[in-house]
Amino acid sequence: MNWAHCSSEARGLDHIAENILSFLDARSLCAAELVCKEWYRVISDGMLWKKLMERMVRTDSLWKGLSERRGWIQYLLKNKPSDGILPPDSFYRSLYPQIIQDIEVRGYSLHSGDGFGPTTI
């Protein structure tokens, strides 16, 4: 079997795989990255970590507030950073756990007042 041929055929279906994988949560996206090189490539090329973060910012006021206060909203929601260059998917992949840690360490609650407590972020 010609694996290069299969790989090029699989690439023709990337948009379908990307669409399906875009519905995953963070834990499932991590697991999907480990399935094979093709899935990892589809996730990376499709900027699915960025899309996951954008979904969180659109649907969760805590994420939206953090994105505005921390300044990483400039990389989301079709915005372009001041230099006009979007970071690679690896930037979003590494930023996601930092955001989760920030939320957990500070003990933020989505529904407690403004969601930011007494400490300024």
TrEMBL record:
InterPro entries: F-box-like_dom_sf (IPR036047), F-box_dom (IPR001810), WD-F-box_domain-protein (IPR050995)
Domain (F-box) ranges: 14-52
Database matches in Pfam families: F-box-like (PF12937)
Source species, domain of life: Eukaryota
PANTHER family per UniProt: F-BOX DOMAIN-CONTAINING PROTEIN, WD40 REPEAT PF20
Protein name: F-box domain-containing protein
Organism: Scyliorhinus torazame (Cloudy catshark)
